[in-house]
């Protein structure tokens, strides 16, 4: 080969190397291509397009950084990266954002399940059964010769009435009664008689009709006397009166707890049956009394 030919060949080889080197220097790096392709696919995919994710690649290993809305989006990002040609691995450093708290207005309007209402037991009426004792003091004097049949009289409850250990009718409640019979005793013949019963009671400002047994005291000729409790209150009451012409009588103070009925009246001669004011009398209910709830 001639000298010219060798020089020309050498020049051609050098030129080719220069061209090849220049061509290699402008060819893009493979990691850059991988990162660009994955980034583009992330931006185009409906599941990941709204994610703020940065994609990088080194030696074929793709790194994902940023935040996603949920775990499903995170898995889709990993899938896109693995499917890219030339990828040797995926390093997912993305974080799942917490769900935003509900706005105050939204929280206020969110329907809540109300707890089941607790049914409160209805208050029961208060019942004072037949046979309940009402001890009263009369506000005025009553007698067989001066009182009239059908006459009303006033009295005051001397002892409270309790139900289940709680006061149902307080002491001092106003009571109204009626003179069932008033018969003057004759001087020689004929008997004197005085019979009483209660008809109503006022409890905390409200009036209630009541029915009680009748307390009946009779004085016969020559000073003999009898006593009875009628109208459903047998053996349950006490009619106490002072001796004719004198005070309240010795038995009045022994009314409470005495048990047996105490009857006062004339013992001899023409004396009448007399009950001074403030004398205590005990009546028994012949019919139960029902009071509304909340009276206790």
Question: Can you walk me through this structure?
Answer:
The protein has helices at residues 3-26, 30-44, 71-83, 104-109; strands at residues 52-58, 61-68, 89-96, 126-128, 133-138, 142-143, 152-157, 161-163, 166-169, 174-183, 192-203, 206-209, 214-219, 225-230, 274-275, 280-284, 289-291. With 296 residues, the chain is an alpha+beta fold. The protein has 2 domains: 3-96, Histidine-containing Protein, Chain: A; 126-291, Type IV secretion system, VirB10/TraB/TrbI (Lipocalin), CATH 2.40.128.260. The strands form 5 sheets. Strands 5, 7, 10, 11, 12, 13, 14 and 16 form an 8-stranded antiparallel sheet that branches. It has a 3-stranded mixed sheet with strand order 1-2-3. The protein is rod-shaped. Mean pLDDT is 76; it is low at 16-27 and 229-269.
Query: Span from first to last CA?
Result: 139 Å
Specify the structural class. Answer: alpha+beta
Given the C-alpha coordinates, what overall shape results?
rod-shaped
Q: Which whole number gives the mean pLDDT? A: 76
Could you say how many structural domains there are in total?
Answer: 2
Gyration radius over CA: 57 Å
Topology as H/E string?
HHEEHEHEEEEEEEEEEEEEE
Could you name the CATH class of the largest domain?
Answer: Mainly Beta
Low-confidence stretches: 16-27, 229-269
Provide a count of the helices.
Answer: 4
CATH architecture of the largest domain: Beta Barrel
Please indicate the percent range of residues in DSSP E strands (runs of 2 or more): 25-35%
